[in-house]
Design a protein that fits this description.
The chain has about 240 residues and is α+β, with helices and mostly antiparallel strands. It has two domains: about 100 residues, PH-domain like; about 90 residues, PH-domain like. About 20% of the residues lie in helices and about 40% in strands. It is built from three helices and 15 strands. The protein has an eight-stranded mixed beta sheet with strand order 4-3-2-1-7-6-5-8, covered by helices on one side. Strands 12-11-10-9-15-14-13 form a seven-stranded antiparallel beta sheet, with helices on one face. A hairpin with a 2-residue loop joins strand 13 and strand 14. The termini are far apart.
């Protein structure tokens, strides 16, 4: 009798786990983010609804010439420039820019882009993604105090190096960035106190953007080798220990 009761309890427990797992998976698949946005044109602008879900991104508007629906595979790059700004770089050629890829820029009018949206896209987009949400609950393997040099001036922050990528946490959150290894095109070291990360993010006057950092602490060879191995997919004998 006891064995029958035990088997019954085990079966019920297993059924509960399976049901909970299926419900969680369905919830993740159904996750969707909707924003009221303004889309700038060369002249004037239009308003509509931007929807981000597991299928891709859709912009619905009464201006039919600007309504779009993209599967993630049809997007060259997504940039979460700030909590109020989303850019979608497409493979569509722009006649106004002499055939260059067309970028759709959206200003969020209600709410804002959250880290949840950023993490959602990071988990689904294999193409480069530029995001200003750099904070992570994971402990970095290395953390280096830096100054990020701009064309005019700069800002202060921390360069955090994780197992899955690199994050720059700026004192100005809109200047923060988080890069997976696949979002980094190349790295460079001009000396123990200068370091550069070239990304796939577009910039004015060039196809890629380089973030140049003045390091307040020396970058040892072990740190640079760690970065090099992951950016260029080189296998190292062993992973470095986490710095306390």
């Amino acid at each position: 009798m006891k064995s029958v009761i035990f088997r019954l309890i085990s079966s019920l427990a297993l059924l509960t786990l399976i049901t909970a797992g299926a419900a969680g998976q369905a919830k993740g698949q159904a996750q969707e983010f909707t924003f009221l946005v303004e889309h700038d044109h060369a002249f004037k602008s239009c308003k509509g609804e931007l929807v981000i879900n597991a299928q891709g991104i859709e912009y619905s508007t009464t201006n039919k010439d600007h309504a779009r629906k993209w599967a993630f595979i049809d997007i060259a790059m997504i940039k979460l420039a700030s909590p109020k700004h989303i850019e979608v770089l497409t493979y569509e050629s722009s006649r106004m820019k002499f055939g260059r890829d067309k970028t759709f820029e959206f200003k969020i009018l209600n709410g804002e882009v959250s880290k949840e949206v950023s993490d959602f896209l990071l988990g689904r987009v294999s193409r480069p993604l530029a995001t200003s949400f750099a904070k992570s609950e994971e402990k970095p393997a290395y953390a280096i105090l830096v100054r990020h040099r701009h064309s005019f001036g700069g800002d202060q922050g921390v360069l955090n190096i994780y197992a899955d990528g690199v994050a720059y946490d700026s004192v100005n959150p809109e200047n923060s960035r988080r890069w997976r290894w696949t979002d980094i095109r190349s790295i460079s070291r001009m000396g123990p106190y200068q370091f550069g990360i070239t990304t796939y993010e577009r910039k004015f006057g060039g196809p890629t953007k380089t973030f140049n950092f003045d390091l307040k602490e020396r970058m040892d060879d072990a740190v640079y080798d760690y970065l090099w191995a992951r950016v260029y997919e080189v296998t190292l004998p062993a992973s470095p220990e986490v710095r306390q």
